[in-house]
Amino acid sequence: MIPSHVNEELTQVSAGTPMGELMRRYWHPIAAAGELMERPTKAVRVLGEDLVLYKDRSGTLGLIDRFCPHRRVDLSYGIPEEHGLRCMYHGWMMDETGQCIEQPFEETVHPDGRFKEKVKVAGYPVQELGGLIFAYMGPQPAPLLPHWEQLTYDDAVRDIAISELPCNWLQCQENSVDPVHTEWLHFYFGNYVRTGVAVAPESQPKTIKIAFDAFEYGIIKRRLQLGFPEDGEDWAKGHPIMFPNILFVGDQVRTTTQWRVPIDDENTYHVSYYVYRAKPGTPVPQQDVAAYRYVPLYEPDGRFYTGVTFNQDYTMWVTQGAIARRDKEMLGQSDVGLILFRKMLRQQMKVVEDGGEPMNVFRDPAVANHIALPMESVKHGIKPDGRYRPGEGGDSPIVPMIEEVLRSWVPEEVAAQAADLGLF
């Protein structure tokens, strides 16, 4: 367990709190790019701040205070103009920096007046990359948006699954350093949900060793399961958790990146970013913008939907409560990764408090523009028959496209390697 005051430090994300200041040093995904193609304004809440994301008619993205500085109406109902967002109530217009640039009646009465120059709301940089829109809400100058490799693949199709979870972000991210839950939650419990029988399926793995190593971008998670060799990639290579709130898993067929973005202390914007890669030299189906979907959390009777893998995770995170009571935990040997991660969070909060820059703040374009990550070449979940196995509830709008890519991708050598490792 940890003291309650430490739990508060790790979970409070508003401006001025240690964790809030740390999280404001990073770029966070706040929307799928396709959302603004359907409607050019979107109300968002990030790190405890109510904002409006918009795209004006010139194509410029903006993220500003959601409420007009004049009479405090909600600018998510505002009108995108050629260069700014106009309030629908009295016509005041703000640009992407939050600066008021037009006040129609005031300018009619006082043509030479400078009132608008004194009016400015919060405005934050936003950028689009890989079908996601990222925001930075920290001190200037803003660091470079990290181009994690999976965001830049040009031989792939993409599918974005979004969930809004009623719990603190840390409960979500701590799951990434908990490899032992897989066999019980996703196999034993998953089988119980499907069959109603509390019997372990034949395929249920047994974890016999876990290890966690700090590396330049965060933590490498490694797991050895019974029947697998120690030179197999799950143990010898592992896969990364990128500090502070990203998990990356995958293989040569599919990668999945998960971001756990704090909405506020008690809610999380969760992004699962699926990337399906085509075999080199194989044409990739045309995808003008990454597909996106919002994932349902509940059954019609109000219980959590637990029929697929990630929704099982969501249920575990949310049922810990809005903010987990870590002061009441009783941790064991399976929790060494969680302890390491919490220690890393506190170390990096102290770096920010001391005026430094925490890990994964990038200033060098040579580094930020392509960040390669360790990844197993064969991973559980996708089989060589090319069938799509979605990790979350809700139908993907691009299943046929994904299936086409998968059929074109799995080369014979990968299928053979998978068979040698006992995965298929």
Write up what this structure looks like.
The protein has helices spanning 4-11, 18-23, 33-38, 104-109, 169-174, 181-195, 233-236, 309-318, 336-353, 365-368, 399-409, 412-420; strands spanning 27-32, 41-46, 49-55, 61-65, 79-81, 84-86, 93-94, 100-102, 123-124, 126-129, 132-136, 156-165, 207-215, 218-225, 239-242, 246-250, 254-264, 267-277, 291-294. Strands 13-14-15-16-17-18-12-19 form an 8-stranded mixed beta sheet. A 4-stranded antiparallel beta sheet has the order 2-3-4-9, with no helix packed on it. 38% of the residues are buried. It is built from 12 helices and 19 strands. It is α+β, with helices and mostly antiparallel strands.
List keywords for this structure.
424 residues, alpha+beta, eight-stranded mixed beta sheet, four-stranded antiparallel beta sheet, 24% helix, globular
Uncertain ranges: 380-390, 413-424
Question: Approximately how much helix is present in the residues?
Answer: 10-25%
- Could you describe the largest sheet, including whether it forms a barrel? 8 strands, mixed
Distance between the termini: 40 Å
Number of helices: 12
Strand content: 25-35%
Task: Compute the average pLDDT.
Answer: 90
**Structural class estimated from helices and strands:** alpha+beta
Spatial order of strands in the largest sheet:
13-14-15-16-17-18-12-19
Shape: globular
**Strands, count:** 19
Radius of gyration: 23 Å
